[in-house]
Amino acid sequence: MNVGVLGAGAVGGSVVELAEEYGHTVTVFADSQSAVVDPDGIDAAAALSAKRTDGRVGSADPEAALDAEYDVLVEATPTTLGDAEPGFSHVRTALERDRHVVLANKGPIAERYGDIRRLEAESAGTVRFEATVGGALPVISTIEGFGPSRVGSLHGVLNGTANFILSRMSAEGLDYEHVLVEAQDLGVAETDPTFDVDGTDTALKGVIVANLLFEGEYSLEDASIEGIQALSGNMLELAREDGQTVRLIAEVRNGNIRVSPRLVPRESPVAPSGTHNAVQLTVEDAGQVTLSGRGAGGAETATAVLADVGRLGENRR
Amino acid sequence: MSEAESSVQSYTLRLELVDEPGELLRSLKPIAEKGGNLLSIFHERGNVTPRGYIPVVVDVEATPDRFEKIVEALSQTNINVIQAGTERYSKELTVLLSGHLINTDFSNTLSRIQETRSATVTDISISAPQGSTETSSARVRMATQAGSKDEVLASIREIAEEKDLRIVEPLVAGGHT
């Protein structure tokens, strides 16, 4: 497959780096400032090196990227809320050109699910979004595999940063502020960790799952969200004394999306440690199905993007 | 008092005791003091619950009003009453609370939880590292009647909102399954 990649952050960069290994050719690569286009395949190493040294992937106009040649457009620009721009327009342009779209950007599929599905219905292209939920974990394809109508609910941990902070608070009896600084030093938390710790990022993932499970047009506004900022070290300690811990849990059930810190048994499958994610699906006739592993990271998330690209390739044949 | 209420009946009490010397005796004291007649005690010494408690089954004879007082006295001594008579307190529910717990009258908070009548508080642990005037946290364990957990949680949420307390609810209401 010929792949166009928009976004040169950790995920977009890793997709470009790994694409060849997965049997695909990157024909377009763009960040917000620049682009590199070559129908025979770009020089991935050169573009990534240019991004690192000059902050630009190439010398072409980023506007040219969308109109260039590709079978699949990988949308890996930063997630935006509300109208989900510019990600949404990128998706629309690709679908109007009858190209496939693989999203790593949560915005369009969380905030404008209905619009995306309508555009997809009129296009020969297909939209896939495995990478938007749970990084490397195949949450979306597992739900699709069982059939969304057979999956009753999902609950679990979908944000590695919040989980890291809570695991550390629980293990060391430290307060939130202290652990946050440590997480920032380690590069686990971003300089502005707001969306990770206030529950927004987890809620976006919950909304995406709800859109799939309940065929609805859910958006962030439909989620009830509570973050982890106000939790104290001694709350975690009290939980620990009782064989429990606290995790930031997304719960998608009965048409509701709820994100909140919850008490869970320490040995619970949905109480992963460190930056890991873990979710349980309740599946008709199959009971609880648990997925756990690395829920973030450039290379990890890129594997989910490339798995989607691979699925689109199989469908084409 | 009606004939039925004054008549002596036999009841089964299921308790969970901390594994410490003297706990069994401490659990039986309220029964004797409140006028219950002990019929049998089954002390499952070797059968510790996953949470490290020792289950005890006590059969007792008492009038209904005396039996009610016995259950009340047991709850006040921090002994976990899992089942009392025919009223099954079968589901455990644990929540964390934090905020100005002491300043907002913690015992009032607890008695209002009890007032829901579907829950009995069985265990409380408070952590107030900066003294009683600062923010403190508590873990409150309750035994709830089967099927009433959502109702109990809704009441606690209401109390927490009113007193500006933070509440952390269990993921699976009832916690340990």
TrEMBL record, chain A:
The keyword Oxidoreductase applies. The keyword Oxidoreductase applies. Keywords: Oxidoreductase. Its EC number is 1.1.1.3. GO terms for molecular function: homoserine dehydrogenase activity. The lineage of its organism: Archaea, Methanobacteriati, Methanobacteriota, Stenosarchaea group, Halobacteria. Residues 3-61 form the Glutamate/phenylalanine/leucine/valine/L-tryptophan dehydrogenase C-terminal domain. Belongs to the homoserine dehydrogenase family. Residues 138-309 form the Homoserine dehydrogenase catalytic domain. This is homoserine dehydrogenase.
TrEMBL record, chain B:
CDD domains: ACT_ThrD-II-like (cd04886). This is Amino acid-binding protein. It comes from Halogeometricum salsisoli. It comes from the Archaea. InterPro entries: ACT-like_dom_sf, ACT_ThrD-II-like. SUPFAM superfamilies: ACT-like (SSF55021).
